[in-house]
Structure formats: C-alpha cells, structure tokens
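[job 4471] stage=fold_predict status=RUNNING
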Amino acid sequence: MRIEYSKRFTKEYRKCPPLVRAAFKRRLQLFIQNKNETLLHNHQLSGNFKNRRSINVTGDWRALYEKFDNGNAVYFVALGTHSQLYKT
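[job 4471] inference complete, writing structure tokens
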C-alpha cells in the first residue's frame, strides 16, 4: 500500500505533541497491517467530508485520509483533535 501526506498533514504532524506523533506512528503500522483493526475505528465521513475516512490516533486525535488508485493508496490530508477537524 502506498501512503502519501498532504502539506497540511505534514505541518499539523510537526506541530502536534510528541506523544501524539508516536501514537500516530503506532496506529499507522496497525493501519498498514489491517485497515479494519477495531482500535482504529476506521470509518467513512459524511457531509463536507464525504470523500474522506477517519482513523483514531488517540482518544481525541484523528487522522483523515482519502483512498485513491483503486484503494491501493491512501493520502493523509489532516491531523488534529476532533474539535479542530470538525469545527463548523
């Protein structure tokens, strides 16, 4: 599986706390092994985010991504707390 990161994701990753960065690395390994691992709570989003999916990084932190290349690749587009990502 090919994994790519947007500029926004990379910037948010660099700015987040070290514990969240470490948690993302662990969750990414789980994601690579099994996208449907229950700890990830991988799910399709709706509304303004209908083409994106979300995985849990920590209790409140999420990573948003989009699938492309017939599902053989993912593009992580955002990283943040639930309130940061889904504010209206």
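[job 4471] summary: The chain has one domain: 2-85.
[job 4471] exit 0
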